[in-house]
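Re: the pair you flagged

First of the two:
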Amino acid sequence: MITNSTFLLICIALASVTAQTFQYSRGWTNGKRDGHKQAEDLRHMASSVEKILNPCQLSKLKYVLEGKPLNDRLFVPCDYFEEDEVIKSYKNDRNQEPLFEAFQ
């Protein structure tokens, strides 16, 4: 009887030590469950994308992410477009033109 209770006590002690070790290791930390840090990372990535990509590339990316069908214009390098054309297509989003006219 003593050997069974000793064995049970050793198993419980090992289980609690293992659980505590896992809790304080990389497996489980309070920081991983915090969504605030992830939101900051996403904001930082979004601002860095705007710095890296030019307006032509951003409009192509937006076009693809909206799920519109692919056409030949997407495969043409942005260097071949005239800058005025790119700027116009980038600024004139849907329903934005009346807004610009109202505030000018």
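Second of the two:
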Amino acid sequence: MRSITFPTAVMPRCSEKQHSTGLPTSRRSSSASPSLFDQDPEKGGLPGHLENGNSLTQKEPPAEEPNWPTEWRAWTTLAACFFLMFNSWGIVNAYGTFASYYKDVLLPGTNALYFNLFGATDCFMVLILSGVVGRLLDAGYYKQLIGTGAFFVTLGFMLLSIANGNGEWNDGNIALIEVTHGIVAGLGMACFFVSSSQIAATWFQRRKSLAIGIVASGASISGLVYPIMLRFLTTSVGFNNAVRCVAGLIGATALFSYFFARPNPKHMYRKPESWQDHRVWVDFEAFQYKPFCWFTASIAFLFLGFYPVFFNLEEWAASRGFGYKDGILPTAQPGEHRPLTAGLATYYMLAIMNAMSTFGRIGAAYLSDHYGAVLVHTVVTGVCSLLVLILWTLTPNFDISMVFIAFFGVFSGSVIGLPPASMAYILGKEPHRQAKLGQWTGMMYTAAGIPSLIGPIVAGALISKYNTYLTVQLWSGACLALSTVCMAVTYYHKRKEHPAAASFSEAEQADSSDEQEDGLRIGRTASTGNVSSRTVSSGASTVQSPRRQAPGEDEEQRKAQSDDDDEIKQVKTDEENSKA
């Protein structure tokens, strides 16, 4: 006789208050902190409370989600979140066109370091405040965040339009551009950035990565719209009026987001008992979880080298003669105006790169729902590093430069759009873990804040010192390669958690097949704690695997256990009588 015991789903006899972590307890990866994955809302005898003095609020019990939401509110929220990304990271993507105008008109002869500094400040503000914004989102303050963001982004660009005199030759002021474009507008972008992906994600449980990808495509479309809009309006109405038009578009789309961006009513909120507790803002247990630590390191390396490509693309193309500005060859000597007969306006190059990233953002998001966000993220980041280190550095002519722009645009869209989806993958699907998505995503981006400021500044300093864009190409490629390595390690640690579950599944299928072949009789499921077991008996004896008793097992569970034991004994007796 043989007996087999293996885990099964918790059966109806379980108390309604039982909550499963969703990971096989006996084979949980040793790399994960046990307390991290045992943070049940019911732990500690007070339903609705989490660690660190936080309370968890869920308006309705979680239910099976359809593939696509059926409520109209989900789709208006998706559109509203699209515009939040449009007016946050999209403006960062469009910065290269602003930088080109600053360099050529407002601040001629200024060190290239400053032009990288303005864009880097935007990145820094968006990322360094992401931890605060993410925690406020987890507490349900989305309305206040969107309103604050709309005010500051619009204000920043309105102030930029009056900070540089008439907006003509040598009228620029370095300090005022840094304050208005970098700090004030950057503060508003920070309120939009994390909000955009996390609010949309609450509606699309089955297609979360794809929804986040659609939202992220807002940055690509913005990177297409704003450069072309700014260039054409600057030519017709002047730089200052062009910036005011940009501010008007930002204000109008932000107003739409304010009224229509709403989280799913079923989404859990975590409101702290006291905001003064430092544990409210930083979840220290996240740093005990290896996948989170490695992925955060990968994002830090990513931002060291990613945006120098966008910030310096126009100037690189002009210096190599692959693109032109206002129909004049940039490499001509002062007073020597040689019209360029081949190539493309440099701002179109940046717009094309941003437009191509739309396909990468949505395509990678779709693949992430099928193959896992971290795996897809690792692959596309590796491809980006190769494109920069090989194709960009060896570009010989205009045609190859456009090949680089197109391919890097596609894969860079995947790279920059996937971090929130990858963090959702790292957290898992359980509602009480997903309730931390805003905070963990914010912590990840906050850790990347300093690198995002340092990276473009280092790139600008390298250009100024060595007078070649090869330094930027090598710097960006190396940083992306390091990011790829860290992502691969993240995938390795996360993967270690899943084979255990897979091995259980395979064992269950094999044993189920044996049951059918041998006519085994199966005792009813007895659920104890977070692990349930069932006993399969055949022959003259039965061996039942040890059960882990839950500390608060109620009388109903004890009765169910007793009934199952009686039935097992009866099965054994029947088999012995049958043999006799």
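The longest helix spans residues 470-518.

-B.
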